[in-house]
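EI: anyone free to look at a 463-residue chain?
SC: sure, send it
EI:
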Amino acid sequence: MRNIWTPHFTSIGTIGPLLFATALLIGFAGTATANPASVTIAGSLQDELGCPGDWQPDCASTYLTYDAGDDVWQGTFPVPAGAFEYKATLNDSWDENYGQNAQAGGANILLGLGDATSVKFYYDDKTHWITDNVNSVIATVAGSFQSEVGCGGDWDPSCLLSWLQDPDGDGTFTYYTEAIPPGNYEVKVAINESWEESYGQGGLPGGGNIPFAVTSSPAYVTFSYDAVSHILTIDVQGNPPAEVASVTIVGSLQSELGCPGDWQPDCASTHLTFDADDDVWQGTFPVPAGAWEYKAALNDSWNENYGANAQANGSNIPLTLGAETAVKFYYDHKTHWITDNVNSVIATAVGDFQSEVGCAGDWDPSCLRSWLQDPDGDGIYTFVTTEIPAGNYEAKAAINESWDESYGVDGQPGGGNIPFVVPESGQEVLFSYDAVTHILTITVEGAVAVENKSWGGVKALYR
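SC: here you go
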């Protein structure tokens, strides 16, 4: 291995009115909106694997391969002994890259090998976790439920649609799903995509199957595997897991809204409220005229906070008002997008599919389960789902959670419904709304493209 310069850059983020330096980063990455065209293992090991040099995001010799059955990018390479560093780069460029702890532009991942080793690398574009089978335990939940979450069959240890992941590196590997219907099930934990090593009841090697029951629909099921004790715990809830106790709008506007000062993450006066029906935190406040900045702080602390472009520890979000305005703020913990109805268009995909994605009914513009989001600020608002069963559907884009403003075929105000077809249950459906043209494009994975603005072509896409 050659010792060469590693292209680190330091990213500066804003917390409150202060600037601080975060981990060493390569480049900057915004929120992903689609499955990438390529994923490269870029790092100090590339010249050993056939690339002309190291840290080359466009070297095909270290491309991962997308496995549609697992919905995970994977690749195995014969890495020689040595101390290496690497990241995952998307689309042959540093524009979007992920490192340690699944962080956009995050720190390089260390890989130390005493001997030449066949190393398998994994990248999940849904969670942005990039890892390998040396640094991480590769564990799957295998059981009688797997066909319900998209696996080709049950009891398949190689199906990564039920992959237990550990992006924060705390040794607890988790998998979460809302796709398991009511019924009685059994599971185990399988290691390295095979039955050669598995753990059942009590964390015993090859132990008995672990039973669990799902009694409601939807149910929110979290599998947690402790890599030390080998114990798998299963939590089944009728409501989404309470990952966040509170979300606060923190910023220079807080003293105007009843807080004793500004930039106070524990001020209840600017807490948002969790709407379980929408699965989004929301709150409306009478903000006076002025130029303000804000972020979202979680659990009354700066330990976890999100700013512009849904970035952890990201830049403050500016908010400029010419007159006092009732501003509604939104925070989605699934995507970490924090925004408001002044800076962003609040758009939802509405139609006769909504009850399938968790809304109480169809044609409901106020249901944010089908919220079209734009974390990267490019003016294209997207929503993606695999929950729509096979069938024929229609949709429109509605603005500000009401029918007062809506757009249909060809972006026409109040225009006709936009038809689309889902050939098979479980296919990815992407709704993309252009805030300038008002055209809503609907793209279905595996379908035949139709030359009509009312629905789109064929891609496997994720927000």
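EI: The domain at 139-237 is CATH 2.60.40.10 (Immunoglobulin-like).
SC: 👍
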